[in-house]
Structures are given as structure tokens and as C-alpha cells.
Amino acid sequence: MAEQTTHYYVPSQSHWPIVGAIGLLFIAIGAGMAVQQLGSEAQSGGWLLTIGVVIIIAMMFGWFNDVIKESDQGLYSAQMDRSFRQGMSWFIFSEVMFFAAFFGALFYIRTIAIPWLGGASNNQMTGQVLWPEFEAVWPLVTTPSGDTTTAMGWQGLPLINTVILLTSSVTLHFAHIGLEKNNRKQLTSFLAITVVLGVIFMLLQAQEYVEAYRHMGLTLSSGVYGNTFFLLTGFHGLHVTIGTLMLFVMLWRVIKGHFSPDRHFAFQASSWYWHFVDVVWLGLFFFVYIL
Q1: What value does the mean pLDDT of the chain take?
Q2: Could you say which of 3.10.20.310, 3.40.50.720, 3.10.450.350, 1.10.287.70 is the CATH number of the domain covering 1-76?
């Protein structure tokens, strides 16, 4: 591994930011068209969404590859390392605010909006602002169209996924300890287990969605409960996917012999991100599934 330079490295212009912006644009348009459920438009939206995801994955691998090459060439100084740490810290903070907005919306609906609408119902306003079957309780499983859905319980797949994510945090911690002690076998084995657990979580969440759509009548059109459920769990699933890709790249680098006990911030940053995703899931499991 190359030694660090004493100069602050300023990278040349990169095309990866614009590639990422294009991928996000495809995802936004594709997701918007897909949720409309309007036949051919929804199908086209699915294709655009898939293209966007592929572009983002390609961007991640390409950008990671450029940064890895620059690090191996010894272009990064101690100041650059501090810049990376500050950047990752602010990125995770922005993610905290992102999920705080959704948790805030859930809090507002459950503690302010629904009780207020319940009061409106008691004041003979049902026919004006609500529907006859409205009950001021959470979850709202009855929609204005009269359809009734089933709320997702915390037992079964959600509980299993909770155990999986908590276990993955433990295995990742042991992998980090192995890296700090320069125990490559411990590092590789526990990191590989963490990646596998991440993949299992995603597969089980996909199975949960299939169960919700086919057997519980729980969809994005299932009123405010369906909206908040899929927005919170869906965005978290996206973050798990990104985190798993990051850890997979770290595993590949470990196998290639990268990192040392005193130089491994890429691994540490991926660990920060994964532990953050785990903490968010604990909040989701408690506020979305249990309460």
C-alpha cells in the first residue's frame, strides 16, 4: 500500500456526478409512472426505474474504482482523510434528516391529524371531509373507497429481518476488530457473513411485499397507512441495498489485500453507514410494525 502524500490532492473533473444525476432522474420518473398503475404507462415506468437503478449501480462501482486507484497511488494526505471523514459524517446526518421527515409525517398523522379528524367526525362533518366508515384509530385500514386492508404485524418476516440486521451489526463489528488486529481471516469471514445477511434481508423484504400485495390487500393505494408503510420500509430497503453494495466492495478489496490496521477509512465509513441503517430499522420496527 502506498504511503500518504504531504500535499492536498485535488482530483480532476469527473463525469460520475452527472451520471448519478441522470440515474436519479430515471428513477424519479420511472417510480412516478410505475405507481400510477395505468397499464402501459406503469410498464414503461418499470423499465425506466430499472434503467435508473442500473445506472446508479454502475456509477457507484465506477466512482469507487477511481477513488480506490487514487488511494493506492498514495495521492491522499492526512488532510484528505479528515475531509473524507467530515464528508461521510455530513452525509449520514443528511440521511438522518431524510428519515426524520418521514417519521415526522407518521407522528403528525397518528397524534394530530387522526384525532382531529375523529373530532370532526363527532361534529357531524363525516360526509364533508371523511367517509362513513372512518374510525379515528391507527392503523387506518379502511380507505375512502370502502376497501379494507390488513395491517402488517410485527411477527414473522419483520421480526426475522430485525434479528438479521442486528446480527449483521455484530458480525460487522467483529470484522472491524479483525481488521484492527490485522487478522485477515476474521476480517474476511465476518465481513462475508455480513454481506450474506444483507442479501437475505432484501430477499425477505421482497417476500414481505409480495405477501402484502397478494394476500393482505396492502398496496400504495391503501390510504395513508399503505403510503407511510411502503415509503418508510421501501426507502429503508433502498438504503440496505446501497449498504450491501458498499460492503460487497469492501469485501472485494479485503480479498485483494487492501486496508491495514492504521489505514482503512473506506471500511470504517461503510461500517458507519451500515450501523446507521440498522438503527433506522429499529425505529421502523417499533413505530411502524409494533405501535
Answers
A1: 86
A2: 1.10.287.70
